[in-house]
Write a structure and sequence with these properties.
4-stranded mixed beta sheet, 2,3-Dihydroxybiphenyl 1,2-Dioxygenase, domain 1, alpha/beta
């Protein structure tokens, strides 16, 4: 067993693969208020790579690949279950998202923590949770 903690400082980025690059790019820019850090097209891979900064400083890498396999289930697929974003005002987030054409689920209450949360999906069906912190 290690005697000292692993010297990690936080999450550097989250990477997602999209089947429809222009649609996913619009979603993250227009619906989730992301800012472009950099954008690259790799001819040899026929792949776009878009580095984004979400509100709160979260870095997201969006990749496109030809014919990626679909997600098998929602949200219980093996691997990354969902991307959870923190907010101090869930009602304001839901109202803004709905005004931008997104369809968040009804707000739920976490039975364990008492916190309010909701889910919406990106264009590829990736579950995105909005979790209200008090």
């Amino acid at each position: 067993m290690p005697t000292s903690p692993l010297p990690l400082s936080g999450v550097h980025h989250i990477a997602l693969i999209t089947a429809d690059y222009p649609r996913a790019k619009r979603f993250y820019l227009d619906v989730l208020d992301a800012e472009i850090i950099s954008e690259t097209y790799r001819t040899e891979r026929d792949s776009h790579k878009l580095d984004l900064r979400l509100p709160g400083g979260i870095q997201l890498e969006l990749f496109s690949f030809p014919s990626p396999p679909a997600r098998l289930s929602y949200p219980e697929a093996c691997g990354l279950r969902h991307l959870a974003l923190a907010t101090c005002d869930l009602d304001a987030c839901v109202a803004l998202l709905e005004a931008r054409g997104a369809c968040p689920e009804p707000i739920r209450l976490d039975a364990l923590t008492g916190a309010r949360f909701t889910f919406l999906s990106d264009p590829d069906g990736t579950p995105i949770e909005l979790y209200e912190e008090k």
